[in-house]
Design a protein that fits this description.
Elements (H helix, E strand, L loop, with lengths): L11 H5 L7 H24 L4 H4 L1 H20 L4 H13 L1 H19 L8 H31 L5 H34 L19 H30 L9 H21 L2 H4 L14 H6 L4
Helix pairs in contact: 2-4, 2-10, 4-5, 4-6, 5-7, 6-7, 6-8, 6-9, 7-8, 8-9, 9-10
Amino acid sequence: MTNSTSAGPTHDGIRMFYGYIPSLPATVVFTVLFFISTTIHLGQAVRYRMWYLLLTAVTAGNFEVTGWAARTYSHFYPGKLMPYLIQTVSTINAPTPLVAAYFIILAEIIRRLGPCYSRLRPKMYAIVFLTADLVSLTVQGVGGALAAIAAGNHKDPEKGGRIMLGGIIFQMVAITVYMVLATEFVYRYLKDKPFQRPYNDPPTGNYFMDKNMKAMLLGCVFSSLAIYVRSVYRTIELIDGWQGRIITTQIYFNTMDGAMILLAMYCLNFLHPGRLLGPFTSLKKVDSIDDDLLKKKGYA
């Protein structure tokens, strides 16, 4: 089998797995860059005491480092099943914990600016979207493992591929709803059009749409779009088939999967909630809020 992105000769073992030999320079560069970003995230999580980032951004980075390291190994042994299985499961699951970080960050922004402008209460973002994220992670992981094992046993991997596809589509739907709700929240805040509901919690502190808040929202938008592009690519890839042209063309994977998640990872490094937002707040800490602000927003 011939592929313009292959780094060397092909044989039956390669055709059974990638459809190409993973490029050594590309795999090494991605492995190193993901390792750097993950190490920075670890340091930032400790510095700002944002422990949830250990389970989200750091976990996502570890998945990516593992996956790209396995692809590096596959450059030398492209016919071996285990590194192929590892990279399949790792890279398909990696974005899911990162998405969870942005769900948590959005909930914090809503808590600060005013839950009255949100269709969902802040804690519901954690309940609804993190649950969806967990379901997506499980489905994609199971599907990826089944597909890779089937390929290694000379069987049709399409069943596992369809399971992966279901998990990715489910994640796309969740991200879409998240982006719609976030957009509606920002619009209602800027236009001062709160929902009139008796159970709205007051905002936590005297927070406004300052430059740091705007930068954090910009980071959320940029990273969400990058992850969304990756999800669209993965969806098209799996619809095209496990042996289709898209999945067996290396440049597509490098740019539409690896590069997109790399951009999202570094975006969170540079536009970090610890630096831009400071310590996360509690809904119990409302005594410092200006009474006029509470009255204006309908809380008092």
